[in-house]
Each structure stands twice: as C-alpha cells, then as structure tokens.
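Narrative summary of target 7.
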Amino acid sequence: MGNRFCGTTTRGPAKLGDFKRIVPHERLQACRSSLVAAFLTFGSFQMVPAAFAQPFQPVSQLTSWYTDRSPVDVEIVGTKGVGLEAHLISPPRMLQFRLERAYLHLVIRRDQPPSSVASLSFDLPTGLPSALFQAPPDQVEARGDPIRQLTAADWASRAVRISLSGSNLAGGLELASSELRSCKGKKIQDDLYLLNKDHGPSCVKWSLGSGIKYIAQYSDNVQLLVQCSSAPLGCKMFVPFEGFLASISFNESHLATWRAVTEKVTDFLRSKKYR
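Modeled conformation, tokenized:
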C-alpha cells in the first residue's frame, strides 16, 4: 500500500533525502498555498478544537515518517503470548494517542492475532517532532515554532525515541527490580549504579549484551536497567507508563540526568493521550 505525502503516493519507506524526488517543487508550493489558505480560514496553524472532537480512528500501519503535522490516532492494546498464540489480556488494557504524524516512525496494528507497536521521537528542549529538525527548512511547516535544521550530532543530543508495544507489560517489573537491587555495584551518583555481574547468577543474566550496564533507582521499590553505548541514541531503558513498559533511547550525554529524561517522556505521553 502506498504512503501519502502532500497528495503524492510513494511505495515503501521514504527518506528525507527523497522528498525532492517525491514532491516536485510545484506541488510543494501548492501544498504550502493550501496551508496558507487554511491559516487565513482558521487564523492559526495549530490543531483547531474540531480536530480533537473527531472520532478516534487508530491507523493500522505507517511504514514511513514525514514532516506532515496533521493529527494521527495510535492505539496500543495489551496482549500476552507470541505469534498465533497472542491474545488480549483481561481486563483489557490500552493506550490511545492523538499526535502529529511527524512524531511517528512506525505503527503496526493487527486485530488477529492481536498486535500493536508504535515508534516515535521528540525533541527534548521543545517537545516537537524530531523529524522537523532533520529536514531542510523548505520541507517543514514551522507554524511559528523554533525549528531549525540540526547537524546529526546536535540532533542526537536533543532527541529521545520511544517504542511502545502491547506485549511490553509492567507486570514483571517487581521481580526484575528485586533482582537488579542485588546487582548494584559502584555508585555513580545518588540514583545511578554500575551493574556488578559478580553479585549472583541473576546479575550475570542482566549483564548480557553489548554496552555498559547501569542500574537506575527509579523509586524506592523500582530499579531499572540502563544499557549504554556510544551510538547516537545509545542509552536504552524501559520506563513504566500506565501498565506498560515504554522503551526509550537517548544520547549518552543525558545519562547523568536520566530521571529528567524519563519525566519528560512521561509528560509527553500524557499530553498526547486521546481524550
């Protein structure tokens, strides 16, 4: 199935570098003219209240991301089991979001067998879609927001990526926290420790995989594993959110302020919930 951008259909994932091929200059100008007309009609480029009043209609698939800032509905539904054995949990658990399409990298949603996945990112200083800071200025509708094209390094230092899956439930968090508590090694700061795999068999399990492993003291009862590498968004951890575990990735420069990052992620997700 093709992807739609500014009245043009593409096949498969599109890249920012492909926009000039996908959207000819004349069509891009026509799109801008339409947006200007909308501005003159409604007096603002922000989503008007009528957009929030529309019925919730979750998308099933989105294999490309664009700088399109129109609203999209995303639903994550709690499931257990793998493959054909997957089934909805009881009582039902779900997350529903309405947000600009530019936030989204990937959305997959199936009814049978039930499955729902979404990947998105935002800019930490502004809360705007990270994609807007990668695209050339002439491909971004700024809407008066402080948007400028960043270098790859600057973009990575400001971006946080969130992955949500209906199968990532917070039910096992208590057991995981209990195991991680015994694995605390050298103290880095008040709420962050190196993982010491020599503290027991379970600690060896948590130490597997590449990168340096840390244990973050999320609360009195919750410990979270942080896995970091030198990749642009090389630090990864799972953060509890309304019965689910959201996987977040951010630049290693934010490791010391990991708590502030998780708080911004939680605030962001709450602000985008469909009401």
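DSSP finds seven helices and 16 strands in the chain.
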